[in-house]
Amino acid sequence: MSEQPLPRQRAVPADSSSRLAHLARGCAGIVESRWFDLTIVLVIGFNALLLGVETYPHPGSLGTLLRALEWFFRAVFVVEIAIRVLAHGRRPQDFFRHGWNVFDFAVIAAAFIPGLHGESAALRVIRIARVLRLVRFSPGLRTIVVALLRSLPGVGGFLALALVSLYVYGMAGWLIFKDTYPEQYGTIGQAVLTLFVLLSLENLPDLIEQGVALSPWTLVYYVSFVILTVNLLLNILIAVIVNSMEEARRLEMTERMAVDEDRDGVPDHLDRIMISQRLDDLRALVAALERELQIDRKDGQPRSSPRDRRPPPG
């Protein structure tokens, strides 16, 4: 039996989706690495120091160096955003589903708005806003920010109650002290402003001394204001914020548990990216095999089996 030549191994053509999958896998690995976050934190810190150095008088040569460093920081931040976007593979829009990502993109992209130059106040504000990006890299700071945002409804109710209390005590103070102390209680606006400053208890002894000189009963006015408004309202505000902190901590723990439900040490979104990339690789391989089989059918030569490839016995 004549020995048929082995078919040539056709190279599997590189598929664009496969290359994108490998690129996304590499970018996702970079984003998930600890040194990446540490590098960005250091760059943000140096950028903050640069903003402080610019407030001091400096020679022209140093100004040129500072401008060069500013462009360097911009380039680093642009590369960071590009890596984060590419880590999402064929779904770059998923990058904007996270609020911190939107904030980072807005702060970095705003520096390239046409018309902004190095001395403009708007550009300086944008550069200062970069320092706020440190919040996303610190779980503790992130929890505090989330707690403050979640406490806004409760704080709104607290402010309404505080305004009502100040207005009621302001009207009472206007009726009692308007003729004796017109500079402090001459109008309802002045009375509310005086009581608002009194919330810090800074000038309480002076006001009590003035009131007692007018009538000993004014002591009831100030003592009740301190107990009901200063102590009670501030304790309510503290309770609202503490409750929001607990909710923010529970939310943070829930998100951390949801990030890695299979507990394999790899975040679930990275698992999804890797699975999608593997599926893309398999699709590319299947497509290449189908093309190879079609070429074989056109040649009219069946592929030799492994048994046919064995050399004849001697």
Automatic annotation (TrEMBL):
<dbReference type="InterPro" id="IPR027359">
    <property type="entry name" value="Volt_channel_dom_sf"/>
</dbReference>
<dbReference type="InterPro" id="IPR043203">
    <property type="entry name" value="VGCC_Ca_Na"/>
</dbReference>
<dbReference type="GO" id="GO:0005248">
    <property type="term" value="F:voltage-gated sodium channel activity"/>
</dbReference>
<keyword id="KW-0407">Ion channel</keyword>
<feature type="transmembrane region" description="Helical">
    <location>
        <begin position="35"/>
        <end position="51"/>
    </location>
</feature>
<feature type="region of interest" description="Disordered">
    <location>
        <begin position="294"/>
        <end position="314"/>
    </location>
</feature>
<dbReference type="Pfam" id="PF00520">
    <property type="entry name" value="Ion_trans"/>
</dbReference>
<keyword id="KW-0472">Membrane</keyword>
<keyword id="KW-1133">Transmembrane helix</keyword>
<feature type="transmembrane region" description="Helical">
    <location>
        <begin position="71"/>
        <end position="87"/>
    </location>
</feature>
<protein>
    <submittedName>
        <fullName>Voltage-gated sodium channel</fullName>
    </submittedName>
</protein>
<dbReference type="InterPro" id="IPR005821">
    <property type="entry name" value="Ion_trans_dom"/>
</dbReference>
<feature type="transmembrane region" description="Helical">
    <location>
        <begin position="158"/>
        <end position="177"/>
    </location>
</feature>
<dbReference type="GO" id="GO:0001518">
    <property type="term" value="C:voltage-gated sodium channel complex"/>
</dbReference>
<keyword id="KW-0812">Transmembrane</keyword>
<keyword id="KW-0813">Transport</keyword>
<keyword id="KW-0406">Ion transport</keyword>
<feature type="transmembrane region" description="Helical">
    <location>
        <begin position="221"/>
        <end position="242"/>
    </location>
</feature>
<feature type="domain" description="Ion transport">
    <location>
        <begin position="33"/>
        <end position="250"/>
    </location>
</feature>
